[in-house]
Amino acid sequence: MVEKQLPGDISLPSSDIEIKKLIQQRRSQSKYSVEDFFRLPEKSRYQLSPDGKFISYLGPYKRRLNLFVQKTENTGLEENAKRITSMDDRDISWYFWKDARLVFAKDDAGDENFHLYSIHADGSGLQDLTPFKDVRINLIDELEDIENEIIISMNNNSPELFDPYRLNIVTGELVQLAKNDNPAEPIDVWMCDHEGRIRIATKVTGGTNTTLLFRKTEDEPFQEVLTTDFRESVSPLFFDFKNPNVVYVSSNQGRDKSVITKLDLTTGKEIGQPIFSHEEVDVSMLGYSRKRKVPTAISYTTDKRHFYFLDKMTEERYAFLEEKLPGYEVVVTATNKDEDKFMIRTYSDRSLGAYYLFDQNKKELYKITDVSPWINEADMAAMQPIKYKSRDGLTINGYLTLPVDGAQKNLPVIINPHGGPWVRDHWGYNPEVQVMANEGYAVLQINYRGSTGYGRKFWEMSFKQWGRTMQDDLTDGVNWLIKEGIADPKRVAIYGGSYGGYAALAGAAFTPDLYACAIDYVGVSNLFTFMKTIPPYWKPYLDMMYEMVGNPEKDKEYMAAASPVFHIDKIKAPLFVIQGANDPRVNIDESDQIVKALRARGVEVLYMVKYDEGHGFHNEENRFEVYKAMLGFLNKHL
Questions:
Q1: How many CB atoms lie within 10 A of CB 609?
Q2: Measured at the alpha carbon of residue 370, what is the angle toward residues 366 and 372, in degrees to the nearest 5?
């Protein structure tokens, strides 16, 4: 890293020497290297063509994920796979089949302004379908039954507002389907029926309300169905197959936990009793068979993922697959249009799993590949679901991973709060956790209050609690580990990304004696400047953000108290700050501020900036560098 002048007049000295020293200090007793955990998979994200004759996957080319295609009967024969893209600046982020072509998305250096491309399965006809600068696209509907067309939304008319378009993936023709031209009441969701007609939308009203809109045909204007405060959610999933005025929804209206139910769009009322609910967690995922026109299975997550089946054929398929693949979570990730061939992915906490091709008619299961064959899952650490009580009596869920060497007491520990903060951690393979467990650390992941999936009350208890009770939940997790004899109280670190990066800074500032060191990865340091630098397409939600995080005018005292940058006099633990220069969510100024302030006080702080990254490092070489430096930092200070 060369010396650069960053925003905020921070002189960033070359840290190559520092990083190399830390890497040299790294005490690795594992037979696995950082590269083993963070290298690109040779083959991943498999999909089936609509006719079932081809499979596709992402694999590395010049250290970037690119598209490969091969015939289904040649599955597993690498020499018969053809690479059809040659992206060398950035990974392909996501893709899908559309007739005989593939459509994929890629951004530029982490700016998250994704461009959409299409290419023929033989590699010909590559074109940028959205060649617009500083424009973000979202996929609304793949239009599986309409040839050569998809529906997308773009903010090309206004940075804050997304308009829907019908896009021809062969000619590139765009036809705008509706206008989203009222910044006071922006539409933030567009949804199609099974025939590809936009008939549902939701808009933000009054700053903190959500209004569900519906129309019976595309020729009619939208009518308001119901309005809820943003704390209540009525999320449309897909239309009923028999009644065009009924939609399946995930809803917590009038209840704490979200359930799966049906909604009459002409009355705004739920139909009958919920189809499925769970007393511990929200339920929001419902699958369906497009060919047979029936809902199939509901998935939900407690400690792990579970299914509730609505369809006998789907239940029998999963029973067959789980019998053939015992000990793994089994998920169908793709199917052909006839729904007789399925792409299967296995998951566990100790490996990235494997891909299989399942022929429903022949009842044959063919293994395609392991995602990370260079890692023996027997060498990896188990992730254990855990619970503990917070100081105010809440049940806090999380996951504990102990070192692979079998040690269970008086351990160096990494507290690893997730980002978001309004998401949750799940059970499964996590390369960050595994690389730390292989270094001899225990890792505790905590679904602190505000984590989603545990109901509305648990989520709302986080409102305006950054640095307060949300942070207390992490502190209580540390104390629980110490009480259980698992953690050595003198060797506890905190590391996280995004909100987790904020929590790392808050831990160092507000509980300075608790942590031996802290690592902030693209985290917020100043709640005031964070609110001012959010991307333009978040601005319709700004009033909601004020309710959840704080209003800079009304909550000035609280926000100042919760911003680590104003409390650097309390920070004494060594700090490692990591930032992508193009981050659209957490501006680089958040990291610049804390680094400048700490260095002025003489507090040890290592600062790594990558100028080809955004909200987290995606390029393989950058991941290698940052995790080597991270392990060196942890080993030095723990």
A1: 20
A2: 175
* Pair type for strands 54-61 and 82-83: unpaired
Amino acid 75: pLDDT: 60
For residue 480, give the 3-state DSSP assignment.
helix
Confirm if 405 and 29 have CB atoms less than 8 A apart. yes
Residue 520 placed within a domain = yes
Q: What is the pTM of this model?
A: 0.93
Q: Is residue 211 part of a domain?
A: no
User: 8 near 596, Cβ under 8 Å?
Assistant: yes
Identify the CATH number of the domain in which residue 565 sits: 3.40.50.1820
- Count of domains for the chain: 1
Higher pLDDT, 293 or 14: 293
Exposure on the CB side of residue 143, measured as CA atoms within 13 A: 18
pLDDT tens per residue across span 215-260: 999 999 999 999 999 999 999 999 999 999 999 999 999 999 999 9
Q: What are phi and psi of 67, to 5 degrees?
A: -90, 135
Q: Characterise 228 by phi-psi region: left (phi > 0), alpha (psi -120 to 50), beta (else).
A: beta
Give the pLDDT of residue 47: 96
Residue 455 placed within a domain: yes
Report pLDDT digits (tens) over 384-403: 999 999 999 999 999 999 99
* Residue 631, Cβ density class (10 Å: 0-12 exposed, 13-18 middle, ≥19 buried): buried
Phi, psi (degrees; rounded to nearest 5) at 253: -65, 120
Q: How far apart are CA 596 and CA 293, in angstroms?
A: 59
**What is the helix (H) or strand (E) element at residue 103, kind and residue range?**
strand 101-106
Radius of gyration, alpha carbons of the chain: 25
Query: 463: helix, coil or strand?
Result: coil
Contact predicate 150/110, CB 8 Å: no
Residue type, 61: Y
| Cβ 395 vs Cβ 389: under 8 Å | yes
Alpha carbon distance 133, 156 (integer Å): 9
Q: Cβ distance 260 to 298 under 8 Å?
A: yes
* Distance (Å, whole) CA 36 – CA 379: 12
Dihedral angle, C-alpha 237, 243, 245, 246, nearest 10 °:
-40
DSSP assignment, residue 451? -
Q: Which of 620, 624, 628, 623 is nearest to 62 (CA)?
A: 620
Give the domain range for residue 589.
4-30+381-637
Q: What does 258-312 look like in DSSP terms, one character per residue?
A: -EEEEEETTTTEEEEEEEE--SSS---EEEEETTTTEEEEEEEESSSEEEEES-H
Residue 376 has phi, psi (to 5 degrees) of: -90, 115
**Residues with Cβ within 8 Å of residue 590, at least 6 apart in sequence:** 523, 524, 525, 526, 529, 530, 533, 579
Does 168 map to a domain? no
Phi, psi of 193 (to 5 degrees): -85, -175
61 membership: H or E segment, kind and range: strand 54-61
